[in-house]
Design brief:
2 domains, FAD/NAD(P)-binding domain, alpha/beta, 25% helix, eight-stranded mixed β-sheet, 332 residues, binds flavin-adenine dinucleotide, five-stranded parallel β-sheet
Length: 332
């Protein structure tokens, strides 16, 4: 019965995270006749869950939603229940080296559980910062679900030609993102800082330099506090400000970056992080040690959590690399 799989005491591979990368790692493990457990908090915590249409997924020329693609991946994995245990909703809280493998602690059905595996694949992604109004993040979800507010330049930049775009954010990241989005030919770009001081994360010289580039590019910024959104029926992104005014854009674009880079488990395991905070690996996705830069035995990282380009085809490719490496190692 789905939701109540039988947990074995130990596996060839434990996979933390069952988004696009973790599910592919589980499938590949099954196909290579390895045993695996996929511990997943739930599909709604995958980054793609709220994406209504993704256009770069091979085999889906008309596009596919993140939600539908996750369902397909889960369905594919469930065919191999004899080799792969899919445990969801379950949240991993700790992982440590133990003997010649790993021990992972997680909570499942409100019970603390432990499982052992020879190899551990970290696939628990990263979490976007969601624009909040009045301290709440839900007001923007209808616009995100309708594809009127975007979060990923590589995923949705191609939707911008001829559109007026509000970039939400106040940091250098938002400024640089606005400059990069010009590549896609929007009609206009404007940065909305939502009451935050613009470029407060930069020193005076860097701030002046970036402001200069934005001015030259004709990209203004404004600091009004957002109090709500409107225009969903008209398929526009209308922003309401605290002073009672409102502005209508064709699209919104988050320039807020990450809310949580999920560094807790990688740090606990001694992983090296790159300057942006992603886990560093070699080409086979073996995690590099913060101590000496050498691969940590049996430890892999795939998908968005790993230093890379945060796309689903890359999540799949890295999952394949990691599991094939486990397979090759296990042949001796
Ligand atoms: C709005 C939006 C649109 C996007 N559109 C596209 C697109 O068009 N094309 C494209 O290629 N990419 C797109 N992306 C990027 C894509 O979603 C990510 O690259 C992809 O989801 C990465 O896969 P992942 O498995 O690494 O992480 P995720 O898919 O985010 O999955 C991580 C999983 O880990 C689980 N998890 C987290 N913490 C724990 C824990 N402690 N214990 C157990 N489980 C845990 C979560 O429940 C989740 O299922 C989009 C992203 C966003 C936000």
């Amino acid at each position: 019965m789905p939701g109540f799989p039988r947990l074995q005491e130990s596996y060839d591979i434990a996979i933390v995270g069952g988004g696009h990368a973790g599910l592919q790692a589980g499938l590949k493990a099954a196909l290579l006749h390895l045993t695996a457990v996929v511990i997943d908090r739930g599909p709604k915590y995958s980054r793609s869950y709220y994406s209504p249409r993704m256009d770069n997924i091979p085999g889906f020329g008309e596009g596919i939603s993140g939600h539908a693609l996750l369902d397909k991946q889960v369905e594919a994995l469930r065919k191999y229940e004899e080799r792969v245990t899919y445990v969801s909703p379950a949240r991993a809280s700790a992982a440590r080296r133990s003997g010649d493998g790993y021990e992972i602690e997680f909570e499942w059905l409100k019970q603390p559980r432990k499982v052992r595996a020879k190899h551990l694949i970290l696939a628990h992604g990263v979490v976007d910062r969601i624009p909040a109004v009045g301290g709440k993040i839900d007001p923007i979800f209808p616009w995100a679900n309708q594809g009127l507010v975007y979060f990923c330049e590589f995923c949705d930049g191609h939707e911008l030609p001829g559109k007026s775009v509000a970039v939400l954010g106040s940091t250098a990241y938002a400024g640089e993102l606005a400059l990069e989005l010009r590549h896609f030919g929007p009609r206009s770009l404007e940065i909305l800082t939502h009451g935050e001081p613009f470029l407060g994360d930069l020193g005076p010289a860097e701030k002046a330099e970036l402001e200069g580039r934005l001015r030259s590019a004709g990209i203004p910024w404004s600091s009004g506090v957002l109090v709500g959104f409107d225009g969903i029926r008209e398929k526009t992104f209308t922003v309401k400000f605290a002073d009672g005014t409102a502005r209508t854009f064709d699209r919104g674009f988050s320039g807020l970056g990450w809310y949580d880079m999920h560094q807790h488990l990688p740090r606990e395991l001694g992983a090296a992080l790159d300057p942006d905070g992603y886990v560093q690996t070699d080409e086979d996705c073996r995690v590099l040690s913060e101590k000496d830069g050498a691969p940590i035995p049996g430890l892999y990282c795939v998908g968005d959590l790993r230093s890379g380009w945060n796309q689903i085809p890359e999540a799949w490719a890295t999952a394949e690399r990691a599991v094939i490496d486990v397979f090759v190692q296990s042949l001796g």
